[in-house]
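Q:
Got a chain?
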Amino acid sequence: MAVVERAIAPVVLAALADTPVVVVNGARQVGKTTLVARLDYPRSSEVVSLDDAANRDAARDDPRAFVSRPVDTLVIDEAQLEPGLFRAIKAEVDRDRRPGRFLLTGSARLLSAPDMASALVGRVEIIELWPFSQGERAGFADHFVDLLFTGPRELLQGSDMRRAELVERIATGGFPDVVARSPSRRRPWFDNYLITATQSVIRELSAIERLAEIPRLLRLCAARTGAELNVSALANELSIPARTTDGYLALLEAAFLVHRVPAWSTNLSRKVIRRPKLVVSDSGLACHLLGVAGAMLDRRGGPLGPLLETFVANEIRKQLTWSTERASLWHFRDRGGAEVDLVLEHPDGRVCGIEVKATSTPRAEDLRGLRYLADRLGDRFQFGVLLTAAPEATPFGPKLAALPVSALWAREIRQARRQ
């Protein structure tokens, strides 16, 4: 498989230019090691991995000596494996606060570790790396989020992508090793990945007595991906206390296996539902956990709807790590029935809404929630899109449109084909 240029790379280099410590966080096997190895560092650099036992021993025995190297940028891969390094890094940065001193990667949210949080506060920028976006797979950074806020009418283009290809993209997800494999070879990879993720990574974060509950919880998360989080219901399924379940969910989040989309709190209605949505962080992983793939996804009564929403939410989450427009991601629902799957709010107050449906025949009533937001927000409402499996792009007024799901990345792909 050819090396894929990561859209986040310029963001990492920009952070190194003005920040002493930069952290690239992400799940295992999303490409962190490849990313930091291929960065075009402006000055001297050295990459050391704590996956190597000898490096771990050296870091543990003398952390000050380990981080005091004659290079401009020391890159420490899998830094969460030796938390004792963080105070040594703090001391080194306090001695010499030049930008770009350290680039750390971690397969868990490093600031979840108390030593990291207390040692590096005010000295660090955190950047998240997720599995490949669809645009990255095609060789380009996707800019759907930017276009929503700067030129949404440019997105009104049809697609030549068939429904079967969309289903296959959902089943594949974005893990680099999965993208490179045939469908029949993905299952063994996911099986082994889950063993590593639920045992090695989780144990790195916390001592868990009932580790067997973690895979069960992850499967339950997949069965509810894209839905509002109900911790009590999950706890009942597992027959464990809700507080324990909530703690396990926090560990899954710290390992980047799931993420939450918070409820958008607004004065539009006093009846707003405030539960977050829970999303498995890769649609291919969610499909594997549910035991579905290919045409099975699209059968009548199948899970295509929530998995498509998971796919879209993850693509948006990825783009937000490099988009120029620094929006935040939410969802909206009130007790009166108004609902929008995803809401993007710009720091200047502008709002875009995204509704997701697996239908190939979008109807005006599918935009009901988007119209609700548009009517109540007035000038704050920038644009609303209904993403569907239909190939056509259909305007529904000056600020609403139904678009093919491939609008998330297709514009960049079409530009590439013309060049």
Observations:
- Confidence is low (pLDDT under 50) at residues 413-419.
